[in-house]
Amino acid sequence: MKKSHIALSLIIIFLVSCTTIPNIQEEQQEETEKSLDISETTDVSGVGAMDKELDTASLDTLGEDLEYIENI
Amino acid sequence: MKKIIKLIILALFLVIALPLVNPEETKNMKNTSLDQTNSLKEDLAKERQFAEIKRQKLEKTQDLEEKTIEEFRILEKNELQNIMKLNEEKLVKLAGLNKSQIKKLAEIKAVNLRKIIGLDEKKINKITSLDQAQLEKLSNLDRARLNKFSQLSINSLNKELQKLEIKKINPSALFRKRILTEQKIRTAAERFQVAEQNLLSLKKDLDAEIKLLKKAKGSKDELGVKEHSKKYLLTAADAIINHLEKIKSRVQQSQNIDEEEALELIKDINKKIQELEDLKSSAEDIETKDGIKSIAKDINAAWKRTRISSEFYVRLLVNKKIQETIKRSEQLEKKLDSILAEIEEKAFEVKNIEEILTIFSEKIDEAREKLKESQGKSIKSRATGIEADIQQLIIESKSSSQESEILLKEAHNILTEIVKGIKALYPAVDFEKDRLEEQIMIEEKEETSKVNVEIRGFLKTSQQTLVNSLIQNLNQTKTNAEIEIDATVEKENLELKKEIKGTLTDHQKILVTQLTVSLEDIGENVKIKILAGEFE
Questions:
Q1: Has the ipTM of the complex gone over 0.90?
Q2: B304 contacts in A (CB within 8 Å)?
């Protein structure tokens, strides 16, 4: 009788922990996400990208080549 | 007996009649007595509040003697509530000040009061000599500026505070200068992608054409030279147009610039695109070598001007984005300060996190200074016509802007540490909740220069000297005027336009004439706009 009680209790503990642990993990993940939201306030990664995508580096030789044609 | 009754009736009559003799006086007496009762009631209520706060907080603060506690009796209810939120260390420090200092500081909101009490005694003494309005501004500043400002002399401190203003804001709508629909943003983003793809492909075509042109030139193939030169010119114009289209789409997408400014920029870009479209049409019709050379010169000149303008547009877009991040960070610091005050009230030690928050604040302050530097250089680059100076100022402006960005990245890393620290100390913290403190923003009043100058195109040193002399003179004489000189070169014909609004002195008129005449020998378009105004 006692053994069956212990076995039953162990099964219950196992089942409860199985359902709780994923919840805790989910909560932790949510918290991390929230803290990331706050950190986004100072995120300037897009600024550097804008500077790069709009610079004239790709047309650096344009002036030189046009001058070449001017004097052809 | 009858006599006694008569006497009683007489006495009663006199008592009743007496107030009727001087009703005003009686009313005053009644008011005075009412005032006295109200005042007594207020005193009693104040006494009760003080007793309650004394019991709840002051008596529990170990290092506060009974005599010192009594110093707080002068405070009103809201002031007592403010100081109640301080921890023991700060409360003892406040109690060490004199009565007028305590009274002045207790008026400041608890979140801000904590920061001020954290300063050293010398700074506190200086700060408490400010009037309440200035003290309010100072207390609302971030930690870095609060510390920096409190090191100034009282005169300089007052001057710096004059430049600031407190604004009540709606935190959710704070960072947008204009609201754009999702559809508009998406369409602009799509246009950007198209322009970028076009530019990549055109760049390849340019590289191929210049190689073919050089090969044709090497083999003295005149037809080949003409063909590839012409193709190169048409492709070059298209490439510049697509570069401008890229910038235009970013302007259309940006919510950091207001509608008026965006429209102005787009108008300016469209004008440049049109100029290049016109040059393209001219290039298509040209068959002679001389014609090709002439168009190449025009496209090159247009490219030089476009390149400088586009650097200016990009800097404006990037700096507006940085500015937005700085403003967000300032408001975030307020949120974090408020959170720390809440945690401290629950008897948690937050000193370590406060120290990291101060470093965060200093990084944001450095970023703010670098941004100002960049914006200043960018404006200067618009006010000169000397090509080398413009190039130099553009480089310097870009460099300061990038330094500002690096500082913000560092602040970002510090912020992650702060968030982790707060969560570890008090896991129940609610970062999402909007705090009252976030509705207050400190902004620098815009310093508008008395004489604004904008030069498009390039000037010779002698011409720039004339512009500088004119600006100097307008400043000296405090003249309100608008001067616009437009020199347009079209097919080697020069068209000069001069427009003056306001009354110039004889000397200024001579300078404007000299400047206009000096532009007669220019080979490229120049536009000089001088706006002198708001002189008292």
A1: no
A2: 63
Residue B421 within any structural domain of the chain: yes
- Within a domain: residue B165? no
Per-residue pLDDT averaged across B13-34, rounded? 59
Q: Is A57 on the interface with B (CB under 8 A)?
A: no
Residues of A in contact with B415 (CB under 8 A): 38-39, 41-42
pTM for this predicted structure: 0.81
Q: Mean pLDDT score of chain B, rounded to an integer?
A: 89
Contact B289 A44 (CB under 8 A): no
Q: Identify whether residues B364 and B430 lie together within a single domain.
A: yes
Nearest CA in chain B to A62: B236
Partners of A56 on chain B (C-beta within 8 Å) are 243, 307, 310-311
Cα angle, residue B51 at apex, residues B49 and B54 outer, rounded to 5°: 105
**Burial class of B289 by CB neighbour count within 10 A (0 to 12, 13 to 18, 19+):** middle
List CB contacts (< 8 A) between A31 and chain B.
423, 427
Q: What would the pLDDT profile of B148-181 be if each residue is shown by its tens digit?
A: 999 999 999 999 999 999 888 876 666 778 889 9
Q: Which of B297, B325, B431 sits opposite A42 (nearest CB)?
A: B325
CB within 8 Å of A41: residues ≥ 6 apart: B325, B328, B329, B332, B415
Of B196, B296, B322, the CB nearest to A69: B296
- Residue B292, in any domain of the structure: yes
Cβ atoms of B247 and A54 within 8 Å: the answer is yes
Q: What is the mean pLDDT of residues B369-392?
A: 95
A51 at interface of B, judged by CB pairs closer than 8 A: yes
Number of domains in chain B: 5
Q: Which residue has the higher pLDDT, B534 or B259?
A: B259
Helices (H), B118-181: 121-127, 132-139, 143-149, 154-162
